[in-house]
Amino acid sequence: MSTAMNFGSKTFQPRPPEKGSFPLDHFGECKAFKEKFMKCLRDNSFDNSKCRLQSKDYLECRMDRQLMAKEPLEKLGFKDLLDPLHSQAEKDNKP
């Protein structure tokens, strides 16, 4: 006799995270960027708005080393930190 009871026929459908999963930085390729970001957070009472440049650099490192999917920095909230030439170069490189 089965002890499991079926209270409705709804089944759980897992969904992946919106941005997907990404590999850990096992080889420490972006460790220096992460450490600068974490130091900035500690020095600024964890006010991340004061560490946006370090955050941008860390995410760029991860994208450059394929530790996360490439995303335009504008979509990640860094449009105001981009210089006009860098922003145009990203637009030119889009397929």
UniProtKB/TrEMBL annotation:
Residues covered by the CHCH domain: 30-63
InterPro entries (alphabetical): CHCH (IPR010625), COX19 (IPR051383), Cys_alpha_HP_mot_SF (IPR009069)
Keywords: Cytoplasm, Disulfide bond
Pfam families, A to Z: CHCH
Protein location: Cytoplasm
Region (Disordered): 1-21
SUPFAM superfamilies reported in the protein's UniProt record: Cysteine alpha-hairpin motif
BP-aspect Gene Ontology terms: mitochondrial respiratory chain complex IV assembly
Similarity comment: family membership: Belongs to the COX19 family.
Protein's name in the database: Cytochrome c oxidase assembly protein COX19
The organism of origin for this protein: Channa striata
